[in-house]
Specification:
Helices cover 60% and strands 2% of the residues. It is mainly α.
Length: 203
C-alpha cells in the first residue's frame, strides 16, 4: 500500500515541475485501481489480498497519497469525483476510530491494539490538508486535528524521537501478526509524517 504514497508523490512532483497533466492522470488511474480493489464499504483499506486487515500504516500511506494527489488534481478531471469520494469516506471512517487521546492504533478498527504513531501522523496530515482545502468540515475535523497533534507531540521523547512506530512489515494472515508487530522509536516512518503535519499547519 505504500505504492499509493510513492506513486502519488512522485507523479505529483513531476507535474509540479513540468505542468504536464499526464503525470496526474497516471496517478489518478493507479489510485482508482486501489480504490476499486482495496477500499471497503467502511471507508478503510485492506493491507492487501492476503492481509485482509486495516493495518494502521497501510491506511496511512493511502491517506497521505490520496491527499497529495487531490492537492493537484483538477476538479474537472474525469476521476476527481471518485477519488474525492474515496478520500472523504476514508476520513469519515478515521474520525470514528480516533481514540480519546487523539491517536489511532496498529489495527485501525481494534481499540485494544497499541497506539501507533506513523499512521497517526499520516492521518493527521490528511485531516490538516483536507480542512485547509475545504474538503472536510472544519467544525468536526479541526478539534480532531488539534487533539491528534497534541497527542503526537506528547509521544516525542527528549531526544526528538517519536515513540511507538510500527517496524516495517509485510502482510499478515491473522490479526496477531499485526498486534504483535515490533515497536520502534525514532524510525523515519514516524518522524517524517510528524514533519509533514508541521509543514501543513504552517502553510
Amino acid at each position: 500500500m505504500d505504492d499509493m504514497y510513492m506513486i502519488s508523490v512522485l507523479q505529483a512532483q513531476a507535474y509540479r515541475a513540468t505542468k504536464n497533466p499526464v503525470y496526474l492522470e497516471r496517478a489518478a488511474l493507479q489510485m482508482i485501481a486501489y480504490l476499486d480493489s482495496l477500499q471497503q464499504d467502511n471507508g478503510l483499506f485492506f493491507h492487501g489480498a492476503k492481509g485482509r486487515f486495516f493495518w494502521g500504516r497501510g491506511n496511512g500511506w493511502m491517506a497521505a497519497g490520496i491527499t497529495e494527489l487531490l492537492t493537484d488534481l483538477p476538479k474537472n478531471n474525469l476521476h476527481y469525483a471518485k477519488i474525492m469520494d474515496g478520500y472523504q469516506k476514508m476520513m469519515t471512517a478515521l474520525l470514528s476510530h480516533q481514540d480519546e487521546k487523539g491517536l489511532w492504533h496498529q489495527l485501525v478498527d481494534y481499540p485494544e491494539a497499541w497506539e501507533e504513531t506513523s499512521s497517526s501522523g499520516m492521518f493527521t496530515f490528511a485531516f490538516i490538508t483536507g480542512v485547509k482545502n475545504g474538503w472536510l468540515n472544519p467544525s468536526k475535523y479541526i478539534p480532531a486535528t488539534q487533539k491528534a497533534w497534541k497527542a503526537l507531540v506528547d509521544k516525542i521523547d527528549n531526544q526528538g524521537n517519536i515513540q511507538d512506530v510500527c517496524a516495517g512489515m509485510g502482510q499478515r494472515v491473522d490479526a496477531a501478526g499485526y498486534l504483535n508487530a515490533r515497536k520502534v522509536n525514532g524510525d523515519y516512518h514516524g518522524q517524517a509524517p510528524l514533519l509533514w503535519c508541521a509543514s501543513a499547519l504552517l502553510k
